[in-house]
Amino acid sequence: MALVIFAVMKDKSGKFWKKRIKNSLLWFFLLAMGCMVVQLLAVEYHYNRIADINWLHTVSLGELSQLLINNIGDSLLLLTPFVAFSGRWRKLGWLMIWLVTLWCFAQLLYMPSYRDLMPLSSFFLVENVGGTVAKSAMGAFKLADLEVLLPPIVLYIVYRIWFKHGIDDTHHSGWKRLGLTLLCVLGFVAIRLGMTAVHYNEDKECPSYEQQLVNDYCVMWTRQGDYMNQNGAVPYVVYGLVTAIHDRTTLTDAEKQEVTRFINEQPQYGDDYATARGKNVLLLVVESLNSWVIDLKIDGREVTPTLNALCRDTVNNLVTLNMRSQAKNGRSSDGIFMYNTGLLPLTTQAVSNTYGNVPYPSLVKSLGEYDALYACCDEPTLWNVQSMSKTYGYNDFYGKADIDSVVKSNGYLLDKALLEEVAQLLQQRKQPFLCLAATAGMHHPYNAPMEPATWVQNSGQYTREVRCYLECANAFDASLSQLLESLKSNGLYDNTMIVIVSDHSESVDDAPNGRPSIDRDGDKCVCVIINSGQGGKIAGPVGQIDIFPTLNELLGTSNTHWSGLGNSILRDDVTSVATSPTQAMGASKLINRQKEAWRISDMIIKSRWFEPRE
């Protein structure tokens, strides 16, 4: 065997191989298809494992077959340059292979933090490639991710050793190349139409095959990854490209009436609960704060004692530990978008990316003359955060450049630096003020213990990733305690409604026994409202979209022209939430309307509903 390989490598003319294989291009094409299928399957496997930890044990052979067939169709289409071109133009096939490799690798880095595939529009946010996002991506890298990098590298080595000369010497006529290209394209089309037929047979409610085509390819009401599972990578990318380019929707008269009807039918709240009218507002949006950390003890010691005390005091504080995340691909920016506007995020892309310069009603605008400050730890360009702060109506922006000097000069952790600066800034603001402070200290990844090691890490409990997350939660809790004490000492505490909310949930460590069983899926968020004049524990489930109308009701601004698409959690009928247009939990008469709100919000955003009309 060694002698054969040596002979092949020494035979630079390629005659040895050409004598034994009549069609090098065919065999290489099949190997390249296998390489690409493996890469796409790796992306789908990791996505489905993130979406459902038990997926591998519950997935059917039919579902796996559909994934495989989809990927074969995709690879047929993507590798057509090898048969469509000759000479040096054939190298475009290698360009496609490396583009698919980079796309797959980016997805594996993106999914652990965002729990979904990266939408195409996010690939163009080059300003996001740095700071927290870069750290999160690099922290998400695992050796297993090489499964999308190694196949094309091995393929290239095999190509150089065994196939290059044979392929270079393969010259087909233009008609033959056209015929092979059409064969690949028709193979892709046949697979796609066949898969739609399968979906049509499974969907008993779809009225026609043509409607099933529309449902499959023109609508993405589920996660990005679910769309790829159903339709393959090529339709997914095409859909993302079309939606990124076509960023304005013109509504029909019927759709305009539908949106108007939905808005008019939203509940109008009176002043029964307007017990925080005229108070300052501190909206503290906490990165990745999961409810299961509340009241968690390690060796009898509380991880978040400050939050625990606030959550136990349901006489003076309004508390829900069953708020479900509705953030999508914009993650933190989506959470902040919901809290500020009362609109739901897009299911296909980040609102802050494509629709950041669109006017929206907001909490700031409802409050009128409030002095409004936006403070965070991010670069101004990250998810267009500074531009979005202006869209919401905030007067001033305090970001990474301001916080870095505090971190470096005092050696503070991010959250401690941010909250200490917020406490000082609020002393200088005109009252009443509204301050949004978005933390970042609990951002993924959770792979680096603090230095020096804390008592949480030294406990040895749970997995290392969970301990790292709990260290961050413990550090935030200590910073929160200092912030509250500072507000009290400065005489601001009693006249300030403090709202502590999670920006989204975070599934920390997917190992079955990796974390406490309080919330196995890690999908419950925290909402604590202090000094509102209202108290109680809301069992829920409620949604992030419900916080905007709740705050408006407490602040006495419910009678403005916009109350959002959610429902105030002060009302007894909020016991359900729609986490997507098709998925809901809880039991109440609101469920169908909560699902419909996603489509209404989508139309409002994409049509620029609140843009002034001539």
Could you write a compact summary of the structure shown?
By secondary structure, the protein is an alpha/beta fold.
Characterization of the model:
By secondary structure, the protein is an alpha/beta fold. 50% of the residues lie in helices and 9% in strands. It has 25 helices and 13 strands. Strands 1, 4, 5, 6, 7, 8, 9, 10 and 11 form a 9-stranded mixed β-sheet that branches. β2 (297-298) and β3 (301-302) form a beta hairpin. The longest helix is centred in the first third of the chain and has 29 residues, at 174-202. The protein is globular, with a radius of gyration of 27 Å. The N and C termini lie far apart (79 Å). Residues 1-9 and 16-21 have low confidence and may be disordered.
Per-chain topology:
Blueprint: H1 2-10, H2 15-20, H3 24-51, H4 55-58, H5 61-78, H6 81-84, H7 92-114, H8 131-140, H9 150-168, H10 174-202, H11 209-217, H12 224-231, H13 233-245, H14 253-264, E1 280-286, E2 297-298, E3 301-302, H15 305-312, E4 317-324, H16 332-341, H17 351-354, H18 363-367, E5 371-376, H19 385-392, E6 396-398, H20 400-410, H21 414-428, E7 433-438, H22 455-458, H23 464-489, E8 496-502, E9 524-530, E10 536-537, E11 542-543, H24 547-554, E12 576-578, E13 584-586, H25 591-606
Instruction: Label the overall shape.
Output: globular
Determine Rg (CA atoms, Å): 27 Å
Low-confidence stretches: 1-9, 16-21
Helix segment tally: 25
Strand content: 5-15%
Fill in the keyword field for this structure.
disordered N terminus, alpha/beta, 614 residues, nine-stranded mixed β-sheet, two-stranded antiparallel ribbon, globular, 13 strands
